[in-house]
Amino acid sequence: MDILEDINSSPSPYHAVETQVKILKEHGFKQLNEKDDWDLSSSGRYFVVRDFSSLIAFVNPGKNSGEIPHIRIGGAHTDSPTLKLKSKPLKFKKEMLVWDIEIYGSPIITTWFDRDLSLAGLVGYLDGSGEIRHTLVNFKNAITRIPHLAIHLNREVNKGYAPNLHEEINPIFGLINKKGVETSADNSPDIIFKSLLKKQLLENKNDQQNDIQILDWDLSFYDVQPTILSGLDKQWIVGARLDNLLSCFAGTRALVDYAQKGGKNSDTLAILACFDHEEVGSVSSVGADSNFAESVLRRVVPDQKNFDRAMAQTRMLSVDNAHACHPNFPSKQDESHCPALGGGLVIKRNNSRRYTTDVISGSWFKALCLQEGIKTEYFSMRADMPCGSTIGPMLSSKLGLSSIDIGVPTWAMHSIRETAGVNDFKDLYKVWKAFYGSQK
Ligand code: CO
User: Fold this and answer.
1) pLDDT in the model for residue 182
2) Among residues 405, 432, 436, which one has the least CA distance to residue 314?
3) Comparing C-alpha atoms, which of 431, 336, 318 is closest to residue 382?
4) Which residues contact 89 (CB under 8 A, 6 or more apart)?
5) DSSP conformation class of 330
6) Helix, strand or coil for residue 299?
7) 279 Cα: distance to centroid of ligand 1 (angstroms)
8) Can you give the CATH number for the domain in which 7 is found?
9) Is pLDDT at 177 greater than 50 in this prediction?
10) Structural domain includes residue 233
11) What's the rounded mean pLDDT across residues 14-39?
């Protein structure tokens, strides 16, 4: 399945966007730069990337700006909970070099123990001619791990262990003697890190240009164990970052396949929008709370009156994973709104507007699922527990468009290895593709 390769190629949001770009380019999508003037007078396939980690791709119907396109937006997020490097990423602890990390989003921390971890993300550097450049880097190999304390040293561990987040979860890099590393006469952690990063960067770039200077980085750890199919008859997808790369890639594949068929309806402006920083609230220049989506939409529909008329008939899928019913923890979920993993696509509802689903969007989406023969399930939180949210509410409220929150039922969300159903993922892809061609 493409989805396994797509996820395994995407250890960071930057790599997720790079993987999406590769798929889009293979299907004839052309890159637009926000700094340029865009000529969208003819039909075409385009994508825009902001700061390497958020992407908007669209199939432009090519109507004159005097006409109003049907707009269909499918949205998701490129980031996942992880451990990120701090500005001074290495330090000594008892003669060992350890990584200094910041927790990003809300991972289930204990699942990060005893995993083989690598490092990936974006690096900024000065090249030989003094130009500031950015490039993706991926160490690929397992270079570090966070070992558990042996049970003999914590006999109470199975009664519940809450690690101290500052002291007890540093990934360990290894023993460094006072002579330092081979690459440098200086053994300060900062120098060690920069020479390590420079070496990896040159290796990844396959570039022998040595006179570069590292400026900054956004690097996060990831588990090198790949995403796989698991369970009887391989009914599950198991791996990292399923929240929300399953949705990013279902959407990417849906858009390119929709575009390949020429689009059922040439009046439709079909859009895929994937944003970074959802796991930390979306407030950033690239998050769903930024002007990215609106800015792209306004360039496609520049006339204010037409823009308002277009928004009034725009529909959006806000796609993010949903909590599947967990047979071992039945009391944690509303027993009658508890979707079975493998039981169909989930419609999420929260009338305090943590999700966008309402009677309007619930109707058009249900009609689409009926037409496509897609099974749906419903999710609502227990009344005595707070509800999560995602990109839908902020986009829908900013733009005034009709939106529904849906997703693939998933176990162990925010674990380093999550589980989702193969058939549910296929349903998501199918309904997403149909959505781009839908009129009803
Ligand atoms: Co999510």
Assistant:
1) 46
2) 436
3) 336
4) 99, 100, 101, 189, 193, 219
5) G
6) helix
7) 7
8) 3.40.630.10
9) yes
10) no
11) 97
Model confidence at 183, in pLDDT bands (50, 70, 90)? very low
pLDDT of residue 233 exceeding 90, the answer is: yes
Note down the domain range covering 249.
Answer: 2-80+240-437
CA–centroid distance, 247 to ligand 1, in Å, is: 9
Task: State the pLDDT confidence band at 210, using cuts at 50, 70 and 90.
Answer: confident
What beta strand segments (E) does 70-201 contain?
A: 70-77, 82-93, 96-104, 117-126, 132-138, 172-175
Q: How far is the CA of 154 from the centre of ligand 1 (A)?
A: 34
Q: What's the pLDDT score for residue 90? A: 94
Q: How far is the CA of 13 from the centre of ligand 1 (A)?
A: 13
Backbone angles phi, psi at 135, to 5 degrees: -150, 155
Q: What are 300-309's pLDDT values in tens digits?
A: 999 999 999 9
With beta carbons less than 8 A apart as the criterion, state whether 98 and 171 touch.
Answer: yes
Nearest to 428 by CA among 361, 355, 369: 369
pLDDT digits (tens, 9 = 90+) for 246-305: 999 999 999 999 999 866 556 899 999 999 999 999 999 999 999 999 999 999 999 999
Q: Cα of 150 to ligand 1 centre, how many Å? A: 33
Indicate the number of domains in the chain. 2
What distance in angstroms lies between residue 65's CA and the mean position of ligand 1's atoms?
A: 35
DSSP string across 129-158? TS-EEEEEEE--S--BBBPPPPGGG-TTGG
Q: Which two tokens stand for residue 402?
A: 């009709």
Cβ atoms of residues 400 and 413 within 8 Å: no
Q: How crowded is residue 57: how many other Cβ atoms within 10 Å of its Cβ?
A: 29
Domain identity same for 91 and 169: yes
C-alpha closest to that of 258 among 70, 44, 59: 59
Q: Which pLDDT score, from 0 to 100, does residue 180 have?
A: 46
Q: How confident is the model at residue 95 (pLDDT cuts 50, 70, 90)?
A: confident
pLDDT digits (tens, 9 = 90+) for 345-379: 999 999 988 999 999 999 999 999 999 999 999 99
88 and 65 belong to one structural domain: no
Instruction: Determine the distance separating the centroid of ligand 1 and the alpha carbon of 186, expressed in angstroms.
Output: 42
